[in-house]
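SAMPLE LOG
Freezer: B-3
Tube label: C17
Construct: single chain, 67 aa
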Amino acid sequence: MATRIREKARARQKNKDTRPRAIARYVRMSPRKVKVVIDLIRGKRVGEALSILAHTPRAAAEPVTKL
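STRUCTURE (predicted):
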């Protein structure tokens, strides 16, 4: 019985997504509003993304910059 559990754990570990990911908790802002800002910078290089965030008038740009 434990063998099946170990096999399932190995399969999960093998298929695990290894891309970088950032999670922000306790941000008092709607996820929908933050997603608009994140979509602006998705796929950009770090310097370019920070520049876009610095010149974005939305309130969600500040927590995204800190992240």
